[in-house]
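Follow-up to my post from last week.
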Amino acid sequence: MSQIRKPPTMADIARVTGVSPMTVSRAFKTDSLISKETRDAILKAAEDLGYVFDATASNLRSQKTDFVAVTIPSINNANFADTVGGLSETLAARNMQILLGYTNYDMQEEERLIEQLLRRKPEAIVVTGGKHTARARKLLENAPIPVIETWDVPAEPIGRFVGFSNAGVVRGMVDHLVRTGYSRIAFIGGDVGRDTRGSDRRQGFLEAMRQHGLDTSRLIAAGPPPISMREGANAMARLLEQFPDTEAVICVSDLSAFGALTECQRRGMRVPEDISIGGFGAYEIGSICVPTLTTIDAHARDIGRKTGSLLLDILDGKQDVGDVLIKPQLIVRESTR
Amino acid sequence: MSQIRKPPTMADIARVTGVSPMTVSRAFKTDSLISKETRDAILKAAEDLGYVFDATASNLRSQKTDFVAVTIPSINNANFADTVGGLSETLAARNMQILLGYTNYDMQEEERLIEQLLRRKPEAIVVTGGKHTARARKLLENAPIPVIETWDVPAEPIGRFVGFSNAGVVRGMVDHLVRTGYSRIAFIGGDVGRDTRGSDRRQGFLEAMRQHGLDTSRLIAAGPPPISMREGANAMARLLEQFPDTEAVICVSDLSAFGALTECQRRGMRVPEDISIGGFGAYEIGSICVPTLTTIDAHARDIGRKTGSLLLDILDGKQDVGDVLIKPQLIVRESTR
DNA sequence: TAGTTGGATGGTATCGATAACAAAGGCGTT
DNA sequence: AACGCCTTTGTTATCGATACCATCCAACTA
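User reply:
Got it. Predicted complex:
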């Protein structure tokens, strides 16, 4: 069960096979110059000895790790998970491995995390969001690798970005609701100051409402992000108490929107007849619950895929690479008239 | 924006500060013997030069990576995400980093992944599930590090395990439903042969039904795992066509259970009056949807935390470490009578 | 036949940090 | 004053794979 002797190295295989360590090394690289017989003999010896390639040594000498560092706010969020999935599938073609870290929606934690990740000498770093602490920004700027910011359009991009305007998407939702005939519209979001994308969405709500000359006081802060279904339900309860005449609610995500929906159902209110609900993120739940939820699809997986191919282009030294502006899409479903 | 000269090393800091590289190295280790003045001078020089610690070199020389390799079926599953979260928070105390890989519910892919992960020389490896390909098993057995299997009670454990009987939990659910007075009970799960935990749950269903002398033919295969809400809804539709007199359904997860619930709602059926529904996993949705879902809480986060502390105990050389048997808990809610 | 080409292989130094050991200096004790 | 001990710092070798350059030899050309 447990090994006492230490694991074999390429030198051991070389000894057994009667070749030089250099040749053993070549046998493990797919595109190298080596005869088929030699390679087969080496691979067989490796299998027999139970050899496991040592990436730490390879990394140091070749100054390549095949790591791509990625920070996301939370692993428990289908949107970010999808982005990581899309990125992962794109990078798999190059045998690159994702080194994932969670910031827990905290810029301080992000800073700490970025520092830790950079120590592992990744080939590139992908961060979620376009706002960072001063120190984190400096770390990223000084890093000798490509930096990509996602899920946002940074005020001052560090490297390239793949994102969209979080304020813009909510403006679009407000515009749609106003066009449909609503005017008493509320917003349920997280506490200001933590989730920067959430704050941007709330900002977009305020701007759009002002532009339409509508009341902007219907704001419910549902606690620190991420806002759960339960917190969405609680926020809806508070909203209905404070502003019983509200006609429509925009929630910071489909999860809180679903929570809000269940609160209405428990109170015997009909959606959308008595109140309309809009979400964000095109989570599966919004497409299947009763009634289905009007939402905004940010194309989370696509963000990951496009980040991946942008990254590969940069690493390949392509010259004409540019930022990628994602076009989120309003999906009107049963929860709004 | 981009650096031309190559990043500074400890040797550079040593030159600037007028000490030996060894002393610089010591300045970065918290518990080492070094005077406060020297350390401060070194850290300041490091900051000025924009030094970033090189973990690849450190890893090679010290033969320690502080990596813990983890395989999970899918990142897009709140249960496994919770387990990773619990593990992550436990390991954070030791500054260990999780190296995560997704098997996509595929044992072949798991084998490939385990091989890739072992190359990075992790300090330990945590795999989800207790069934593996022969080669994967061999790789794990030969690995000179602790191996922990989770979310299952392996027939032949490789190292330690932190899990529960997937068949057992469903047996418990069936027993409960039978006790409550149901007899025409169905099971909605994934296709056999892929998701081993899902297959075990289905097996538990069959065993329990036979034990009670009940009809075991009400089985719906909803496609390859993971089973989405949509697939749960479709499966429910098929179930209602094939076996319209079904009294209760057990779904392989809360997500498919919720899908099944929505299908009933769209058909104007009442839950639990017309049909009862049970799920698995204690996802948030089951605690908030209308009606709330009867489910089984496998204590996903707890599995992660316990795996973490078991791991630390093993790495610390504790002698009395044993397997951890998780006690999943039946939570009876509104979706069953 | 001599010269050239290119595929296959070997030798050596090196990536950057640190384990292991050595040594210098300060302080207290007898 | 001599000794030992502890704190702080330095020296050297090393982790394991591979970049770089050299070499060998068979096959082909002129």
